[in-house]
Amino acid sequence: MNERFSQQDQSDTDPATVTTEKKSFCRICTGMCGTVVSLDNKERLVAVHGDREDPQSLGFICSKGANAPEAHNHEGRILHPLKKMPDGSFVQISMVQALSEIGEKLAAIYHRDGPDAIAAYRGSGCFFSSICLSLLPEWMAALGTPKLYSTLTIDQSAKVIAPGRIGYWPPGPQNFQDSDVCLLIGSNPLVSIANLDMRNPLKRLKDAKARGMKLIVIDPRRTETAQFADIFLQPLPGTDGFILAAMVRLIIDEGLYDRDFCSQHVGDLAELRQAVKPFTPEQVATIADVPAELIVEAARTFAGEGKRGSVRTGTGPDMGAYSNLAEHLAETLNIICGRLIREGEAIPNSGFLMGRGPRPAQVIPAPRTWEQGPKSRIGGYGLIAGEMVTGMLAEEILEPGPGQIRFLLNHGGNPAQAIPNQRKVTKALESLELMVTIDPHMTPSARLSDYILPPKLQYERADFPIYIFEPNLSPVPYTRYTPAVARPAEGADVCDEWYVLWALAKALGKPLTYMGQPLDMTVPPTEEQLMRMMTVNAPASFDDIAAEPLGFFLGGEPQYALPADPATAGKFSLMPADVQGEIADLWQERDLLVARGDYPLRLASRRNRHRFNSMGFTQPRIRKLMPYNPAFMNPDDMAALAIENGQSIRISSENGSIQAIAEADEAVRPGVVSMSHGFGDLPDGLGKESGDNSGDDGVCINQLTTTDRQRQTINAMPRMTGIPVAVAPL
After folding, report:
1. Across-strand partners of 560?
2. Is 642 exposed, middle or buried (0-12, 13-18, 19+ CB in 10 A)?
């Protein structure tokens, strides 16, 4: 599917314009696909091909990656810093002037209101810049503020909460590459390029199926991945927790769990058994609207027939109601079935750039790190993976008093589209004393900013793959260095993102570290110096890594899971008190999922292959492929509501309403509206002539969500999928 786009893209290339080709890799998403980059005589991108020699991605490239030349060169790219004027317009200024003015204004806020008035928000543009991924948190630490926010806590932060309440197993889960069963819930790896094997996921899935792996998929839509499923459950959105609880109950009742492993490593199996007792397959089948026999078959196939393989979740369960509980039950299923690497077994990839410490096969007791350290000023939420919870960012900006956020550095993110309760978020961002955005495009968030600093794009900078996901990037220890292979347009005044952080730290007189090492604050470091510092804990030198154009694969003896240390080994806590309360509440609220009242349908989020969240919305070719986000509906629902294909509809929730365009999709189950996040503009047509933008940029479905209620405990995660809605034709 995606290779066809790549071949079409290559056919558009005029060979006369290509003067050289260089190998690199794509940094749009976690796929990190190997590429061959074609350049003209000014070292500007002409074409990007999938590299068939790449041992990881094997020539695969998606439409987003193949469209990189347009991303770099199209007229919508910002090439000079912009400053907002009193009338709301922007004027071009130099980078030197922009950083000088920002530094002066930031210092005034810092010295007047203290470090707690300073915050940063990072999106994909920061996460996929290997230097800034670590440097931004260190910049925040240098300023003495904990107020770092990101997409993490409005995406899948339940994956941080679950082990924080259950406990950690250092060797990690069993490997997909030798699994004989895999259970996917609310995840579509063939489009998201995540969660299974990110190295050419279609081929890797086909290879797994060919060796006999059974695939179980639970999703309200028959996704591209679900088409390969051996067992497919198509429930109502928001019912994943019920299904998982029913599977856990059946597996325990039928003795399909790993008794020896649980006896040694689980401390509260009896409490778990009691908590899931009400969740019979028959009861859950009525709630989730799936056949009870499919729930039973899925449980028996996963735990009985399968011996290796794990449950893997995506945004479906992790962005819905009771998301923390759903992820907890998914991990519980892995644990009771013993789907973890045991003592003496090889650990496929224990990391590379971040170092490779010992991994004993034992439980590290639940740390509940959010219960210590800084708390949010509003709501008292602790840090999640070192970050404040984004669900409370608008309140932290709007609520007066000591610690009110007055400055926000938006690094490669689009909070005005990404964060639920869009109207409130927009109001908050507009109220800031100073907002600075590092972004190459005039996003809705950039338009709310006082300064926009355009960065170099991916092929114009050196990089490593995103190291926080190293074990997921490759089944063997691996990293890869790419130098900058292209140049920005002639006359462009774009920044190195890391230099912005260094310059602002200098303006405040704050010493800055990188990877824990102090930086010279009189002379800025070079990009290569920072890249070399990243390898300080790696098992290979920077020079050795850089010498391998297709990536450095660590050879030699694999790392093995060590024996447990009796003095430190703990047990998994599968049903602590707060989880017991959540599962009891879930059961008590079961009727709310059956009796639908004024909002009879459920809005479910979905990925699309041509855009990564809001990335790409300014590029003509991507806009042509995906100009807006349709409201996909089952044809039977459309007929019942007298909605024609392509007709405008009104979608309403108890939090707001939007106008969208309906499109029939038989893959969507009845009772569901399926739409993508990351589209649309600012609410109420701000900056546009009309409030109806459903036909050009699509619509922001976060106008249907809220951060004022329905938040999860611990991480303040708003409900972003499975939202009760009503639909009416216009």
Report:
1. 346
2. exposed
Which of helix, strand or coil describes residue 383? coil
Distance CA 466, CA 395 (A): 31
pLDDT at 9: 40
**Phi, then psi, of 218 in degrees rounded to 5:** -120, 115
- The CA-atom distances, in angstroms, between 478 and each of 60, 197, 545 are 18, 14, 9
Determine how many CB atoms are found less than 10 A away from the CB of residue 126. 24
Other Cβ atoms within 10 Å of 1 Cβ, number:
11
Residue 453 has pLDDT above 70, yes or no: yes
SS3 content of the chain, % helix, strand, coil (to 5): 35, 20, 45
Residue 423 has, within 13 A of its CA and on its CB side, a CA count of: 12
Do the bridges between strand 648-653 and strand 656-664 make them parallel or antiparallel, or are there none, so unpaired? antiparallel
Least confident of 29-38, 426-435, 689-698: 689-698
Can you name the CATH fold of 173-340? Dimethylsulfoxide Reductase; domain 2 (3.40.228)
b/e string for 207-217 if b means 16 or more Cβ within 10 A?
ebeeeebbbbb
As a whole number of angstroms, the distance between CA 598 and CA 300 comes to 38
Q: Does domain 82-152+369-553 have CATH number 3.40.50.740?
A: yes
Would you state the pLDDT for residue 80?
Answer: 98
Per-residue pLDDT, averaged over 162-190, amounts to 96
CB atoms within 10 A of CB 231: 18
Q: Phi/psi class of residue 613: alpha, beta or left (left: φ > 0; alpha: ψ in -120 to 50)? A: left
Domain 2-73 has CATH 3.30.200.210: yes
Tell how far CA 356 is from the center of its chain: 25
299 bridge partner residues: none
Q: Which fold has domain 595-729?
A: Barwin-like endoglucanases (2.40.40)
Q: What is the pLDDT of residues 67-86, one digit of tens each?
A: 999 999 999 999 999 999 99
| Per-residue pLDDT, 468 | 87
Q: Tell me if 176 sits within 8 A of 339, measured CB to CB.
A: no
The three state secondary structure string of 527-566 is HHHHHHHCCCCCCCCHHHHHCCCCCEECCCCCEECECCCC
More confident residue, 620 or 408: 408
**What is the distance between the alpha carbons of residues 383 and 58, in angstroms, rounded to a whole number?**
39
Distance, in Å, from the CA atom of 476 to the CA atom of 323, rounded to the nearest integer, reads 31
- What residue ranges do the domains of the chain occupy? 2-73, 82-152+369-553, 173-340, 595-729
- Residue 471, pLDDT > 90, answer no
Element holding 325 (H helix, E strand): helix 323-336
Global pTM reads: 0.94
Which tokens go with 601? 């349908």
